[in-house]
Amino acid sequence: MSLLYHYTSIDAFMGIFGNCTKANQKITMWATHSMYLNDPTEFKLGREICREALSGVEKELDIPFRERLSNKIYSSEEMHHQDVMAQVYSTIPDKIHWGMPYVISLSQNRDNLPMWNTYGRNGQGIALGFNEYRLLQTEGLEIKKCCYNTFLDEEYKALYLRIRDRWQSLYKNRDEIEQSNVCDLVYDSVRLTFRDEMPFIKHYGYQYENEVRCIAKPCQNTKIEYRSANNMIIPYIGRQIDIQCLEQIIIGPCADKERVKASLISYLYDKVKNLDRIKIIESEMQYRW
Which of 60, 94, 173, 231 has a Cα at 20 to 30 A from 136? Predict the structure, then answer.
């Protein structure tokens, strides 16, 4: 099973290991509210793709314009309402599972220069290598590879067809649709795509990340915490992950590698059992910062 990498800073690394002790072999990953991720098209892109798929289905089935669900589901008023509700609910503890998801971003890219530049403090940070299989066993996480909105991406093509199939199913019994409660219909149809598909659709400009996304599944007693970054207060939730998931630490290409490695070993010595199990290695990238 492959490793998945989380590029980060030394400061964030210390936060991840802050509560880890030899008696509590857990690290804490921060799942960030998706509204505060670096891609400004997050969810907006997924929603537009869902709308495009629905419109295509309606044209194929020759649904009269006034009867089209897309006019109800994707009206400007309904979209504004959904945006407001998704943002509000995702910061209310007992309604958090109705709102926008919280995300931990990983990458399939090992020791990757663009990733070091973007997420690894311009090569001065570190990358944590997690065992994918063990992460999949972690309770409260949904792990899935992102796809990018180009039909050259086979996963995107398959996802687009799944969305089309869902919309087609809504038209199987037109009489029921005409008589159904519009609010319930909107909720059900959006829920299917919002939670299952939209979090994993990204703009093709981010293909270089090869992102694998961990969605933190909240519950009613989930504690929402806050951190500051880029002059903004960012909501996040912590997820406990067994230290056994971590197999590798890569020191960035621009770091003072010898001293960083010594300090990592010193810092982790009293926190991690069987520290020798975690390989601490240096980046092989040649990069002048």
Answer: 94
Provide φ and ψ at 155, rounded to 5°: -65, -35
Distance CA 17, CA 202 (A): 30
Q: DSSP 3-state assignment of 30?
A: strand
Which structure tokens are listed for 256?
């003072």
In the chain, what are the helix, strand and coil shares in percent, each to the nearest 5?
45, 25, 30
Inter-CA distances, 201 with 2, 109, 163, 204, Å: 22, 18, 12, 9
Please state, in angstroms and as integers, the Cα–Cα distance from residue 252 to each residue in 6, 79, 91, 223, following that order.
Answer: 12, 42, 34, 32
Residue 34 and residue 185 in contact, taking contact as beta carbons nearer than 8 Å: no
Alpha-carbon 30 to chain mean position:
11
Does the pLDDT of residue 147 top 70, yes or no? yes
**CA–CA separation, 78 vs 89, rounded Å?**
16
Highest averaged pLDDT of the listed ranges 74-83, 151-160, 213-222: 151-160
- Determine the number of helices (DSSP H) and then strands (DSSP E) in the chain: 10, 12
- Give 129's DSSP letter: E
Chain segment 157-211, per-residue pLDDT in tens: 988 888 888 788 777 766 666 666 655 665 566 666 666 777 888 999 999 999 9
Dihedral of the CA atoms 146, 150, 155, 161 (nearest 10)?
120
Spans of all domains in the chain:
3-282
User: How many angstroms from the chain centroid is the CA of residue 288?
Assistant: 31
Measured CA to CA, the distance from residue 235 to residue 103 in angstroms comes to 11
Contact (Cβ atoms closer than 8 angstroms) between residue 49 and residue 201: yes
Q: CA 140 from chain center: how many Å?
A: 13
